[in-house]
UniProtKB/TrEMBL annotation:
GO molecular function: hydrolase activity; metal ion binding
InterPro entries named among the record's database cross-references: HAD-like_SerB, HAD-like_sf, HAD_hydro_SerB1, HAD_sf
Protein name, as recorded: Uncharacterized protein
KW Metal-binding (keyword) present: yes
Taxonomy, superkingdom: Bacteria
Keywords: Hydrolase, Magnesium, Metal-binding
A Pfam entry, by short name: HAD
Family statement: Belongs to the HAD-like hydrolase superfamily. SerB family.
Record has RNA-binding as a keyword: no
Gene3D superfamilies the UniProt entry points to: HAD superfamily/HAD-like, SG protein - dephosphorylation function
CDD domains with a match to the protein in the record: HAD_PGPPase
Record NCBIfam families: HAD-SF-IB, HAD-SF-IB-hyp1
Length: 280
């Protein structure tokens, strides 16, 4: 898949802003890691079941504002006291197995196409930066912006410093435009959720991906293209059956996950030698 829009006379840099959950990957990125967190003793069985139920509701109907707020509060409370470096290590070690099968082939193709056209690719997500940053790196994104938890003494304090959601997403990409010189009128944005309408309105080329009912209506009223992503395809299948653009994107996923996993392994070995014991 490629975006055939022809850019007008250049007047600034171009970026493609991608929402993550249900736009690039087929489920909630934050909840996707509940199993490895459980395996490491960070979650009990009841918390895993609650996360699974929240994921079911998210996939079934799309999360509305109240659902997202409840999910945000639940996850913030659940993470209180977790060791930040341990979370980074778990995400790095399990990234390839968890995320690769969830990446929409159509999204990987679009990301590769934007990169080939010289555009920056930026992942913008309400999930936590410890989850979003390595996923964005693995996907070959130029930058990412995500929610940030307050940290005290290397552990989550149970409060959000920045919630990358709704209007805050639009403000985040406007800040990135100032920082990196993007001309938002020439930029692209992709999302599945009506909560991201402010972000979509902030760019010249908004795209609705697997849109919820409200976003679909907004897209139809404003003549925004509506895209359908249906193919989360395992890595090996992409290498053997898909376009060169997707092969390039999935190669980046493999290399990024391998590098992140190796770095995390070495970091954990050093910490264990200093007497570090993960919390149970």
């Amino acid at each position: 898949m490629t975006d055939a829009t022809v850019d007008p006379t250049p007047s600034g840099r171009i970026a493609a802003f991608f929402d993550l959950d249900k736009t690039v990957i087929a489920k909630s990125s934050a909840l996707a890691f509940s199993k490895p967190f459980f395996a490491q003793g960070l979650l009990n069985r009841r918390a895993v079941l609650k996360s699974s139920y929240a994921q079911f509701l998210f996939m079934l109907s799309g999360a509305d504002h109240d659902q997202v707020e409840r999910m945000r509060a639940h996850i913030a409370a659940m993470c209180t006291g977790w060791d930040v470096e341990q979370i980074k290590a778990i995400v790095a070690e399990t990234l390839h197995d968890i995320v690769d099968p969830l990446v929409f082939a159509e999204a990987a193709d679009l990301i590769a196409d934007h990169r080939l056209r010289g555009h920056d690719v930026i992942i913008v997500s309400a999930s936590g930066e410890e989850v979003v940053t390595p996923i964005a790196t693995a996907l070959g994104a130029t930058h990412s912006t995500a929610s940030r938890m307050r940290i005290e003494d290397g552990r989550y304090a149970g409060e959000l410093e920045f919630y990358c959601y709704g209007e805050a997403k639009a403000e985040a990409i406007q800040a990135l435009a100032l920082q990196y010189g993007y001309d938002l009128a020439r930029c692209y944005a992709y999302s599945d959720s009506s909560t991201d309408i402010p972000m979509l309105r902030a760019v010249g080329h908004p795209r609705a991906v697997n849109p919820d009912r409200v976003l679909r209506r907004e897209a139809v009223e404003n003549d925004w293209p509506i895209l359908t992503f249906i193919r989360p395809v395992p890595l090996l299948h992409r290498f053997t059956t898909t376009s060169p653009a997707v092969v390039a994107a999935t190669a980046a996923i493999t290399a990024g996950a391998a590098a992140a996993g190796a770095a995390a392994y070495l970091a954990l070995r050093r910490r264990h030698r200093r007497g570090f014991t993960p919390r149970g």
